[in-house]
Amino acid sequence: MGYDIERFVGYVNEGLLCSICRDVLEDPLQAPCEHAFCTACIHGWLIHHSNCPEDRQTLDVSLLRPLYRYMKNDLNRLQLHCKNREYGCEMVCSLESIDRHERECEYSQILCSNAGCTVQIERRNLDGHLAVCEYRSRECPNGCGYTILSAEDTQHNCVAELRTELELLRSEMICRVEEAKHEMESRLDSQRRHMVQKESILQNEIEELKSQMSRMMSDVRSLMAAERQHRQELEQAELEKREL
User: Fold this and answer.
1) Which residues pair with 121 in a beta bridge?
2) 5-104 CATH
3) Closest alpha carbon to 149 in 161, 133, 162
4) Is 136 exposed, middle or buried (0-12, 13-18, 19+ CB in 10 A)?
5) Does residue 55 come out as left (phi exceeding 0), alpha (psi in the -120 to 50 range) or beta?
6) Each residue of 7-30: pLDDT tens digit?
7) Which of 35, 47, 7 is nearest to 23 (CA)?
8) Which of 45, 67, 79, 119 could cross-link 9 (Cys pair, CB 3.0–4.6 Å)?
9) Based on the number of CB atoms within 10 Å of its own CB, is 53 exposed (0-12), middle (13-18) or buried (19 or more)?
10) How far is CA 38 from CA 2, 21, 31, 35, in A?
11) Residue 154 clears pLDDT 60, i.e. is over it
């Protein structure tokens, strides 16, 4: 929807009106046939139609383009009243700067910032409301350190609040101790499995070394037997040589 034409000061050119809502263009787009629309208006129209609402020429969202620069400049220069005029704001400014003004306007109706409070009040009166709001919070004057709402003053009990906090802290500590205990047990179990696995690997390596040692001893005995046999053969050959 566009800007209500009744808010504007002076004459507004027909070309700056939305062809659908007939208000002054807001976030405008233009069709190839040069008819202009508010973005929200034309998008809503094209959900159910496939043509321009003015001349019925075929139209698709992909064909829409930004407003011509000179038209955009004319639009931005239009003067209009703040939307909070009914609440007392007398500001008149250009369409280009109206959004910035209205975001900061002292006459804007805003929601109280206190949680739980549903009162809407003018921005200029907010500080006064916050000072008396029944949902305002403050620190307990008795020194327990708790933040309490004004509406809870009569129900607030420092001892009860501190006891509740102590129980919560105790429960939290027990939970943390249990978590640390489970984590430590998990780590120990993991290390135990790792040590068992490592021990099994070392045992296998020891068995393999023993097997290799046994084969080496067998080879040594074979070599020693072969050496004795060879020595005996040499001695026999020496005897035969002497006899000859």
Assistant:
1) 110
2) 3.30.40.10
3) 133
4) middle
5) alpha
6) 999 999 999 999 999 999 999 999
7) 7
8) 79
9) middle
10) 6, 8, 11, 11
11) no
pLDDT score at 25: 95
Pairing of strands 28-30, 36-38: antiparallel
pTM metric for this prediction: 0.52
Enumerate the domain spans of the chain.
5-104, 109-149
